[in-house]
Specification:
about 600 residues; alpha/beta; Rossmann fold; 18 helices; elongated
């Protein structure tokens, strides 16, 4: 069975092979053939535009490195039968673990990453044993002599931030559907760097908009220079040619602009300017109003339509001259002819989507007035993104891998109730330690908020809670540096496999093994499990849609087990539980994998 995260380099090569099979010679890219086929021209100049920083090369090493960690079900924080997911762990490692099961499955991503404000990050990625690195940076190995990584500024603030964000955004793109979209909140401090990173990863051609969000409702009069009243939200499509934003619902205020003073049978209307700034002599002519007034277009302007077209519109009662028939003519635009919604704007006012203080008030109200989080986002802000970037009638998956206080989950639940949607969420939050009497980690606040909102809304769908941890398989647990492609490392891993007495760690639970194998072989984290107890064999059944695995952890298995496995299902059991004859006979009738 596959027990590591997806090999991203192999995946990309396979995608390239599907497009250009002729450039591969025995599995190796022939660069000369590639240049000839695409008429590639090389730039001989020594200088050209690029975006570089110290550590960018290591970012690619981080991306390529596979993960052998796992996600263990946190039953104490799971609300049964939930189709949503919360994950406590480092999002870099988690994003790697999601590559197989959620490749091109995510409809919308929203993240609110650290804004890089005069402090180092908890996120400190080191190439190699990243699960140990994760445990160190979250103070889970303090008793082994490690301390927190949160230190004073290193003088490499921007490069540290870029090294943190780049691999995470790169991995996130793999998860988006072709008709997917990503929204990223950021402030002025890193928006210029983020824009360049997003251009490189998502493609400059897939940039959609830089939204300005009015995050404060009043000026900051004690500001030294300017009052900082806005943040940015960068929006990129996975493929801009495919993705289109949903129209926003028309407001009562917008509809109120339409009247019907002349009792037109076609319904309410508003009027628009008949003149245009682009001058044309063919459409520059005098108009006589019904009251006898002669009107010409403003200086330098002309009318929008020819004389013949204008006369037709007058006969069709599509031109308005005012109640007394003596005003400058205007075009009647009927509400029935207007599209069913409003095209999103690039400026989002706090009156429409909320502000920082509203966000803090929302969160405090959930926790009986207690203040546990300084910088949450308002629910209305995320709901606006959901309206634009997701669909109610599809089971869209919404991913937020910088979950913070859990606003995204809150917004998804409220929006689903508003439009009877079926959206699902996946949230990831680092268990960063905080000084608080009630909550020890930020992730504790996130989980608590989700539970409170479910109760308050009487929401019918729960969530599964997972925790990032070491693999349940002993060979990966003991291999401190995960195997690279080097021959020596592969030999070392094989030797450890042979001489390890127990394939699983001492702490491994059967359900943890089930979910680790399932996740790394394409099952989603919301897959269902069922315990089946029989007189001779017991199973844990993992299933979703048209896929089913039967796990049997018996010490001894015989060929009669095949009678309990439905057609199309896969049986997984210990290799040591089968003798060679049983294994061979079973495989003739059952889809068998051994652990």
């Amino acid at each position: 069975m596959e027990l590591e995260s997806r090999d991203l380099l192999t995946q990309k090569l396979e995608e390239l092979k599907n497009i250009f099979p002729e450039i591969f010679d025995d599995g190796v890219i022939n660069i000369d053939k590639f240049k000839n086929i695409v008429a590639l021209q090389t730039d001989e100049k020594s200088e050209h535009y690029s975006f570089n920083w110290s550590g960018k090369k290591e970012c690619y090493q981080t991306i390529r490195q596979k993960s052998n960690a796992t996600l263990k079900l946190d039953t104490d924080n799971t609300i049964p039968d939930g189709n949503n997911v919360f994950i406590e762990g480092d999002n870099l490692e988690v994003l790697k673990l999601l590559q197989t099961s959620y490749h091109k499955k995510i409809k919308m991503i929203y993240i609110d990453p650290p804004y890089n404000k005069d402090k180092d990050f908890v996120y400190k990625d080191t190439w190699g044993d990243t699960i140990t690195n994760y445990l160190i940076q979250t103070d889970q190995l303090r008793n082994e002599g490690y301390t927190s990584t949160k230190t004073s500024s290193t003088g490499r603030r921007h490069t540290n931030w870029l090294n943190m964000i780049y691999p995470r955004l790169w991995l996130s793109r793999n998860l988006l559907r072709d008709d997917g979209v990503i929204f990223v909140s950021i402030d002025d401090d890193e928006v210029h760097n983020l824009r360049k990173v997003m251009d490189e990863i998502y493609g400059e051609e897939n940039f959609v908009a830089n939204v300005i969000w009015e995050k404060k409702f009043s000026p900051q009069n004690d500001a030294k220079w300017f009052s900082d009243n806005h943040d940015h939200i960068l929006i990129y499509a996975k493929n801009k040619e495919i993705w289109r934003p949903n129209l926003l619902a028309r407001t009562a205020e917008a509809n109120a602009r339409y009247k019907n003073p002349d009792k037109d049978l076609r319904g309410v209307w508003t009027s628009g300017d008949l003149s245009v700034k682009t001058y044309s002599a063919n459409t520059d002519y005098p108009i006589t109003t019904p009251a006898g007034r002669i009107v010409n277009p403003p200086s330098g302007y002309s009318w929008r339509y020819s004389r013949d077209k204008f006369d037709e519109m007058v006969k069709d009662n599509c031109i308005w001259f005012g109640e007394k028939g003596d005003t400058v003519p205007r075009i009647k635009r009927f509400l029935t002819d207007v599209q069913d919604g409003i095209t999103p704007l690039t400026i989002w006012k706090y009156s429409d989507v909320g502000h920082n203080q509203e966000a803090r008030q929302e969160l405090n109200a959930l926790f009986d007035g207690a203040s546990y989080f300084d910088t949450p986002k308002p629910v209305r802000l995320i709901k606006r993104m959901l309206e634009i970037g997701s669909n109610a009638n599809d089971e869209n998956i919404i991913l937020d891998f910088f979950a913070g206080s859990g606003t995204t989950a809150h917004a998804v639940m409220e929006q689903n109730q508003k439009d009877e949607g079926n959206r699902k969420y996946i949230l990831v939050q680092l268990p960063e330690a905080i000084e608080n009497d009630k909550f020890k980690k930020i992730s504790d606040i996130t989980k608590a908020r989700i539970k409170i909102v479910i109760k308050n809304l009487d929401y019918k769908d729960g969530f599964k809670s997972y925790v990032l941890d070491n693999s349940n398989f002993q060979v990966f647990k003991e291999l401190k540096k995960r195997p690279s492609d080097s021959f020596d490392d592969i030999v070392k891993m094989l030797k450890m496999s042979i001489f390890t007495k127990n394939i699983f760690t001492q702490s491994a639970k059967e359900i943890d093994i089930v979910y680790e194998v399932g996740l790394k072989n394409g099952f989603s984290l919301s897959a269902k499990n069922e315990i089946i107890k029989g007189e001779k064999y017991s199973f844990i059944k993992l299933y979703e849609e048209n896929r089913t695995f039967y796990f049997c952890f018996a010490d001894k298995v015989h060929t009669d087990i095949g009678a309990f496995i439905p057609t199309g299902a896969k049986l997984l059991c210990f290799d040591k539980a089968l003798d060679d004859s049983t294994k061979q006979n079973l495989r003739e009738n059952v889809d068998l994998e051994t652990l």
